[in-house]
Recover the amino acids of this structure.
């Protein structure tokens, strides 16, 4: 039986290939209608063909490319497109409907603008670039090879820069550009600002999720993962192979090292060394932040215990009175480890919990 597609175990039919990387996944795959299972462990089956690979998830990603290759777009320029005479469009490129391409733009082989794209003057695109509908690229942007930018993203808009002068905010022009290196993928509705004088840079292989904002002069290293709704303020640098989880906010002019991990919803306000893992607002080393979170969860019980101790102290003060024989101890109590020390009628401290 030839393999005809890839899917998950729950949707598999005869001819499908699925993958399993745990016993639970393997049991589901074995009970499915799939014809074969990609595995990377000591699994055995009397009913399914097993294809053994070093990493089942990686092998599945490669198999998906075989069974569902990216759509190929026909070369040529749609009649509704507006292309400047000085633009250099590779003959194999695809220009979809209602695109506008400015002066001196260069578009590499097999690149595709799928529709409604506006490419301003002096932009340079490499080979196999794909811009989904309504992507806007401002002047002077450089995009490498095999870059995908999804619908509605804006590349190279002005940075957020103003100076207060004579009672008003005066705009500071941004004269830099954006440089996007090879094999980058940028999600939908992402905004990447141009640099003030230099470039905003996205490193090779970096993957950016939807709804991300990258401010002017930010430099992202190679093979970083930037998840949804993250925001970078200006002039921050992020090292290679780092991960920034969803809804994190990063302040400006920071140095974030290589292999850094920033947890979801974190507010990063300080530099992070290589390999650092931070979490929380303001972001702190992850172990410290987790201890703080646990402590906050315990606050209601601690407040209740404190109020109980306060009541006990008030009762003891009322019992001893101002003229008690143990005047030196009257009204003086030591609280620690859930114990309260009080003087007895002989003036000797005793403890109770």
């Amino acid at each position: 039986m030839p393999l005809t597609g890839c899917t998950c175990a729950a949707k598999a039919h005869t001819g499908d290939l699925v993958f399993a990387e745990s016993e639970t996944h393997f049991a589901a795959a074995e009970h499915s209608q799939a014809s074969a299972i990609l595995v990377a462990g000591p699994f055995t089956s009397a009913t399914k063909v097993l294809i053994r690979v070093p990493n089942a998830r990686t092998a599945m990603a490669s198999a998906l490319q075989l069974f569902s290759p990216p759509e190929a777009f026909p070369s040529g320029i749609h009649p509704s497109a507006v292309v400047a005479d000085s633009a250099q469009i590779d003959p194999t490129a695809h220009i979809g409907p209602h695109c506008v391409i400015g002066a001196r733009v260069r578009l590499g082989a097999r690149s595709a603008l799928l529709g409604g794209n506006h490419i301003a003057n002096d932009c340079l695109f490499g080979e196999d670039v794909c811009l989904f509908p309504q992507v806007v690229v401002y002047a002077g942007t450089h995009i490498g090879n095999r870059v995908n930018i999804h619908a509605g993203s804006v590349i190279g808009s002005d940075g957020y820069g103003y100076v207060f002068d004579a009672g008003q905010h005066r705009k500071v022009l941004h004269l830099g550009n954006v440089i996007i290196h090879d094999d980058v993928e940028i999600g939908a509705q992402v905004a990447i600002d141009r640099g003030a004088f230099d470039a905003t840079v996205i490193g090779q292989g970096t993957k950016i999720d939807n709804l991300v904002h990258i401010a002017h002069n930010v430099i992202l290293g190679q093979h970083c993962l930037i998840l949804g709704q993250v925001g970078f303020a200006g002039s921050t640098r992020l090292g290679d192979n780092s991960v920034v989880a969803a809804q994190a906010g990063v302040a400006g002019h920071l140095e974030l090292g290589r292999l850094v991990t920033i947890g979801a919803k974190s507010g990063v306000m300080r530099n992070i060394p290589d390999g650092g893992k931070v979490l929380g607002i303001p972001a702190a080393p992850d172990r410290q932040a987790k201890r703080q979170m646990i402590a906050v969860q315990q606050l209601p019980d601690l407040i209740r215990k404190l109020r109980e101790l306060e009541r006990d102290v008030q009762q003891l003060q009322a019992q001893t009175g101002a003229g008690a024989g143990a005047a030196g101890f009257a009204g003086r109590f030591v609280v620690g480890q859930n114990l309260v020390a009080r003087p007895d009628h002989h003036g000797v401290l005793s403890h109770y919990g």
About this structure: The chain has three helices and 40 strands. The longest helix spans residues 286-320.
